[in-house]
Design goal:
alpha+beta; about 675 residues
């Protein structure tokens, strides 16, 4: 027994001596000698070169004090920047006894001048993918990620001084360069504060984050409170609420407020394709279910239009998929200008090919079309247009693989509607547009019902628009377009206000009889236009008034917006005071020039040629316009008469003796 006792005492003494020796060795050990070993181990773990260029000191005790200077982590090979992460100074305190149990508790961590570069290449590969092609490293990488709040190391106080974060993603045109001024926290009820400022895609960027303490984040089972305020240029966002499981982003319960000058500015930030708009302000509730983020209870204004509904973004696919159901009770038509490449702020706020043009030369946003998929339903219950309030607008927008289809699309107006389908295909190298719209039973008196023109407008309009085109801009698409345009207005009248806007002598040359301030009545207005490579040609353009038949021919060139039209009125019976001089419409769409050429005058008081000869081009219009037997009886009859010119020539309603259009330049 004595021997065992002495052996035991000897072993205990040996342990004490070894422990004392280890303690003395560690106390006098120069940790700088271990920098290379530690850096090599970190390099192997990250599959990226790690270096420690400055002092490395460890002071034993409880807590253990660690001081490291000049830490660098290399960037991915494809990056232009050599360093992904750098740290001037790290000072940390680590409790000893929890470390022996495998837990990490830091009373304090201080970071001086940390720099972090996060970026993706043109193929979408991130520089924070350290695992490489080895699947075992991928598993190891996943295993170190915390699964719950309790897995996060305890950090009682954190301070960051002169930090900088850079994030770049060329696929989404995102470039954030932000300084992190301070981030402080502590025990108990103390909050975490994070302030950042810098640049986002060339615009000033600010960030303020407030949350519960870091210990609250780890140990408290209650939802973690958080508040975020950020601004990118004039786009401002505020998020406030809580997250039940911050590590997994589960139980998200946040209120959101978003405002700015133009909704299209959110595309680089959120990746949601939106058109150019006027100033907006939106609020709602943000939640998350799996990979789907939902913005419920959205309400607010965009320009003069209100907007409400729900939007969801599913981030689990190859591209984000946006679904939504939106409603506007009062929709200002001007706020929809961005959908056609124009601007709700007016002509000066969108590009055109030249200063005197009006057709938008706005580029088709193919990067937006290809960045996300969409399935959004929209309804405008009441549309406010500059000339008159319209009825409801409905549209179902589906965007898939860069191809956007709006089907159905319907706008109620004047008791009728414009309805059809439009497809914008941005998946091709050169974007293409295809549109097929019908105008059905639009009553002009009802269309202008809330204006001073209501009592002076009349007629029922029907028609069709069929266009296809290709180009990089809206102007290019229209300048290359092919198709047909047609409209027929039956039994109408034109307000005297519009007539007063024209030169009286020009109306007289057309043989149009004015009656003071009374509206100008007409039997039928028919326009049948063809479009060939951007040139709109008049196949048949006729205004039939009780006294005169006005016809026009010529072109409108959408490539340069030039007008070249000749208009001539022919009396249905001899007129004493009508000169019948052709009216020329020249100039451009933005600046038309209307004038006469007296050298082409027909004989004063001459009667018109047989209506059937003039109306023959209308014979093919009826199938395209399909005005309807009851809704447009006069236009329908006019077109049907054009199919039987001999019958019309012999009818009592024809005037039958005037000079044909081709001889109008000769005096009688």
């Amino acid at each position: 027994m004595a021997v065992l006792k002495w052996i035991g005492l000897g072993l205990l003494g040996l342990v004490v001596v070894i422990a004392a020796g280890v303690g003395i060795a560690l106390a006098v050990f120069d940790w700088n000698d271990a920098r290379g070993f530690i850096a090599r181990q970190a390099t192997k773990a990250l599959n990226r070169e790690v270096a420690i260029d400055g002092d490395f000191k460890v002071k034993l005790g409880d807590p253990i004090r660690i001081h490291v200077e000049g830490v660098r982590v290399a960037n991915a090979d494809w990056s232009d920047e050599k360093t992904m992460a750098a740290l001037k100074v790290l000072d940390a305190q680590l409790r000893l006894w929890p470390l022996l149990r495998g837990n990490y508790e830091f009373p304090e961590i201080r970071l001086s001048a940390p720099k972090l570069v996060l970026e993706k290449n043109k193929d979408g590969e991130p520089n924070w993918n350290f695992g490489g092609p080895d699947p075992r490293k991928e598993v190891a990488k996943e295993s170190v990620k915390p699964d719950k709040r309790g897995d996060i190391p305890i950090i009682e106080a954190l301070a960051i001084e002169d930090g900088r974060v850079r994030y770049r993603d060329p696929t989404s045109k995102i470039d954030i360069d932000s300084g992190i001024n301070t981030a402080t926290g502590g025990n108990g009820d103390a909050e975490v504060h994070l302030d950042g400022n810098g640049n986002f895609a060339g615009k000033p960027f600010t960030l303020l984050v407030e949350g519960g303490s870091l210990q609250y984040l780890r140990d408290n089972p209650k939802p973690y409170p958080i508040k975020v305020e950020t601004a990118v240029g004039k786009t401002k966002g505020k998020i406030e609420g809580s997250i039940a499981e911050p590590v997994k982003l589960e139980g998200v319960d946040l209120s959101v407020a978003l405002s700015g000058d133009d909704l299209s500015d959110v595309f680089p930030i959120l990746g949601i394709p939106t058109p150019k708009t006027r100033p907006y302000s939106l609020t709602g509730h943000l939640g998350r279910d799996g990979t789907v983020w939902r913005f419920d209870g959205m309400k607010g204004k965009v320009g003069e239009s209100d907007l409400s509904g729900v939007v969801a973004v599913d981030t689990g696919g190859e591209r984000p998929k946006i679904t939504g159901d939106l409603t506007s009770k009062k929709l200002a038509a001007i706020d929809m200008a961005g959908f056609i490449g124009a601007s709700p702020e007016g002509k000066g706020d969108y590009p055109t090919k030249k200063a005197d043009r009006i057709i938008p030369a706005t580029k088709v946003p193919v990067e937006k079309l290809r960045n996300a998929d969409m399935d959004v339903k929209f309804r405008g219950e009441h549309v406010e247009a500059p000339f008159s309030p319209l009825d409801d607008l409905t549209a179902h927008i589906v965007l898939a693989n860069g191809k956007m289809t709006i089907d159905p699309m319907s706008l109620g107006m004047g008791g009728g509607k414009i309805a059809g389908t439009t497809v914008l295909d941005g998946s091709q190298k050169v974007p293409a547009l295809r549109s097929n719209l019908e105008v059905r039973q639009v009553r002009l008196a009802q269309l202008f019902r809330e204006t001073r023109f209501a009592q002076e407008m009349g007629g029922t309009a029907s028609g069709r628009i069929q266009l296809t085109g290709r180009g990089a801009t809206v102007a290019d698409i229209l300048g290359s377009s092919d198709g047909k345009l047609g409209v027929a207005v039956d039994g109408g009248k034109i307000t005297s206000y519009a007539i007063k806007g024209l030169k009286t002598n020009i109306l007289e040359t057309l043989g149009i009889v004015l009656s003071g301030d009374k509206p100008l009545p007409f039997n039928c207005l028919v326009a049948n236009l063809s479009v060939d490579k951007g040139v709109v040609k008049s196949e048949a353009l006729v205004l039939d008034t009780p006294e005169t038949l006005v016809t026009a021919d010529g072109t409108i060139n959408l490539r340069n917006e030039a007008l070249d039209l000749n208009v001539l009125g022919r009396a249905k019976k001899p007129q004493v005071f009508a000169t019948h001089v052709p009216v020329h419409v020249r100039g451009t769409l933005g600046d038309p020039d209307i004038g006469v050429n007296a050298t082409e005058s027909t004989a004063r008081g001459a009667a018109a040629v047989a209506l059937g000869v003039l109306l023959t081009p209308l014979a093919s219009v009826l199938p395209f316009l399909d005005p309807g037997s009851n809704e447009q009886p006069q236009c329908g009859q006019l077109i049907r008469d054009a199919r039987s010119p001999s019958k019309t020539n012999n009818s009592s309603g024809s005037a039958g003796a005037a000079t044909p259009r081709g001889e109008s330049g000769k005096s009688q």
